[in-house]
C-alpha cells in the first residue's frame, strides 16, 4: 500500500481500519459479531434505524464514570495537602436535564453560563446552591433570577457587575456569594479562539485592576460575600504549565488580598484536553489533579499562606469521549489534486447527511476528528477520505483527513468519536436542517435525552406559517 501525499504528517495509515482506538471511543465501544459498531450494548445500525441520522449517542456509563473519576482525582490530590476541592461540571459542553442529574448524582456541582443553561439546571431539579453562574455580559434579568433562586456563586466578570449583583441582592434581601474572574495574562497552548486569558480578551478583570475590584466587592459586604478569585485560561489544553503559571499568579494576588479579609476559595477553571485523533496524548485527569495540587501547595508554602479550598470546571474531559455521532453516507467522489512537484494524488470525498449544523467545531476552529465505518467491518484496502457535510459551504467538513476502507459506499453508516462536547451545544438549523436527537445508551437500552427536531418544529416559529390552517391549534 502506498501512502497518500495528501495525508497530514500526523495521520498514520492504520493496519486495520476496523480497530477502535480506546483513546478516542467510549469505554463500551466495540464491534459486534456482525462487525457493526456497538455502544452501551446497542449496535449503531439498530440505533440509526430507530432514531435516524445524524444521531448524537452518549454512553451514559462512560460519562458518569469520568465524572466520578474527576471528582475523586481532585479530592484525593488536594486532600493530600489538607485542602478541599470542588468540581463544577462545565455544562456548556453538553447540557440536558438528564445530563445535569447525572453530574449531580456523581457528586459534581454545575457551572452555567446563561439564563437558558440556568433554566435547564433548575428544570432538572438541581439545588441552586450547587450552581455557579458565569458570563461576560449577564443580563439584568439573568442576574436577578440567579440571585432570586439562590444560585451558590456568581462569577463577576467586570466592575459593572459588582453594582448589578449588589442591586439584585438588595431587592431580594440576600447576601450573594461571588467570585471575581481574573484575566491572568497566561497564554494557553491552544487555538486562538479557545484561549481566554490573553490580555486582549473580553473575559475577566486584568490582574492590575483586581485589588481595587475586590475592595469594591468587600465594600458591599451587607449584600455581597467575596468567595475568591477565578481563572480560566482556555480550552482543549494538553500542556499543564499554563494552569500552573495561572495558579502562581492568582495565589500571589490571593496572598495580597488576605491582608484585608478572608479569601476562602481559588477557582482554577477548566479547559483540560481530550484525544480527538490517533496520536493525541492528553494527560490523565489524575496527573492534572496531582500537578495542580502540588503546585498550589508549593506556592502557598512559599507565600506562607494557608492553602485555600480549590474549585475546577471541567466539561470536555467528562462528556467529550462519551459521545459518538452517527451519519449515513450519501455520495462519494474521488477528486484529483495537483501537487507542487507536478504529480497528482486522489482524495475521496465522503458526504454524509449532517455537517456543520451538528458539528461546527471544524469550521470554527479547524478542529480535527476521526471516522470509522459503523454499520459493518471491511477488509478492503484503505483510502484517504475527507468526510464532508451536506451544507452549501466549502468549509462544511466534519473530518479533514482519515483512512476508511475503499469500499465505503452510499447507505453505509459512519461514526465520528469524541463528539460529546460542544457538538449538540453548538448545533444550528443552518440550511433549515433539523437538529439531531440526543440518545443515551446504557446496558443494552437507549433513551432519548433530546428528541429530534422536525420540519414542523422549524416552521412553527415562522410567523408567516399558519398553524391553524394546517390543523395545529397550539
Key traits:
nine-stranded mixed β-sheet, about 475 residues, TIM Barrel, globular, eight-stranded parallel β-barrel, about 30% helix, alpha/beta, Lyase, Ornithine Decarboxylase, Chain A, domain 1, 12 helices
Q: How would you characterize the overall build of this protein?
A:
With 474 residues, the chain is α/β, with parallel strands linked by helices. The protein has 2 domains: 30-59 and 321-459, Lyase, Ornithine Decarboxylase, Chain A, domain 1, CATH 2.40.37; 61-319, Alpha-Beta Barrel (TIM Barrel). The protein has helices at residues 44-51, 60-79, 97-105, 115-123, 140-149, 159-172, 207-219, 241-257, 285-303, 316-319, 361-365, 455-459, and strands at residues 30-31, 37-39, 42-43, 55-59, 85-90, 109-112, 131-133, 153-156, 176-183, 205-206, 224-230, 265-267, 309-312, 323-338, 344-352, 372-373, 382-388, 397-405, 413-417, 437-442, 445-450. The strands form 3 sheets. Strands 4, 14, 15, 16, 17, 18, 19, 20 and 21 form a 9-stranded mixed β-sheet that branches. Helix 3 (97-105) links the parallel strand 5 (85-90) and strand 6 (109-112). Helix 7 packs across helix 8 (241-257). The longest helix is centred in the first third of the chain and has 20 residues, at 60-79. It is globular, with a radius of gyration of 24 Å. It starts with 29 loop residues before the first strand and ends in a 15-residue tail after the last helix. The model is unreliable at 189-198 (pLDDT under 50).
The CA-CA distance between the termini, in Å, is 61 Å
Total domain modules: 2
Biggest sheet features: 9 strands, mixed
Name the CATH homologous superfamily of the largest domain: Alanine racemase
CATH class of the largest domain: Alpha Beta
Average of the residue pLDDT scores: 93
Number of strands: 21
Shape: globular
- The structure class reads alpha/beta
What's the alpha carbon Rg, rounded to whole Å?
24 Å
Question: Which fold name corresponds to the CATH topology of the largest domain?
Answer: TIM Barrel
